[in-house]
Amino acid sequence: MPDVNASKLGDHIKEIIDRNGWSIRQSALKIGVSPAYLSKLINKKADSNPKPQTLSKLAKGLNVPESELMSIAGYMPVPQNVRVHPTSDGAKVTADVGFELAKQSIPVYGTIHAGEPTFADQCIIGETPITDKIIDDYGKDNLFALQVKGDSMSRAVLPGYVAVFSKDANIENGDIVAVLIDGDEAAIKRFRKTSRAVMFEPDSFNPVYQPIIFTRDQDQDYKILGKFIYATSMPI
């Protein structure tokens, strides 16, 4: 039996072909696949989703964005070699993009407050797809996501992006973390620890932000919620 994503993909491809008034044979010729394969895909007789390389070929032949077919087939864009560049009005992110199959999702929180249950259902604002590899690496129950507010981490994560974290991960100096500080809502900062203090540092193109420092002789009023894994601009 074909999976749900393969079924949706077949319907969508048929819709594109019908909209353009093409026959199966004409469409297959444009794409560079056999009419038998295209018919099998459209009629939901394919056993599984096409691979990303095949989806790219289908998108090019059908003259639709690659991301359109990838999304319907259950693949999500995964940024690789992310680069953040300063600009006159903020920052610009460039990255190579690969696609990985995402059949599951995790909650995205707009806010997490210390005074509420650690992860309150009423603060969930949506979901973000997650790949099987990330789930295998970290465990789904350990994963959560936050929508980034402000530009205090703009060198690493732009405002509005969804940042994914693992609750159960080893935190090392220099890691980006989600942290509750002084009973306020969760913030995203870079973690540093020395023999004298623990610091949560901004990483921003905006020089207004200053590190938050807890020296050894003061109350350690913070709680690290998770370690940053990656960020995505995909809508929630």
A few lines on this structure:
The chain has 236 residues and is an alpha+beta fold. Helix content is 25%, strand content 34%. Strand 1 (75-87) and strand 2 (90-101) form a beta hairpin.
> Measured on Cα atoms, how large is the radius of gyration?
22 Å
Report the total helices. 6
* CATH class type of the largest domain: Mainly Beta
Query: Unreliable runs, pLDDT <50, ≥5 residues?
Result: none
Total individual domains: 2
Percent in strands = 25-35%
User: Rough shape?
Assistant: elongated
Major sheet: order of its strands?
4-3-5-6-11-7-8-9-10
Q: Report the order of strands and helices.
A: HHHHHEEEEHEEEEEEE
Fraction of helical residues: 10-25%
Mean pLDDT: 83
Q: Would you give the CATH topology of the largest domain?
A: Umud Fragment, subunit A
Features:
236 residues; alpha+beta; 434 Repressor (Amino-terminal Domain); Umud Fragment, subunit A; nine-stranded mixed β-sheet; 6 helices; 34% strand
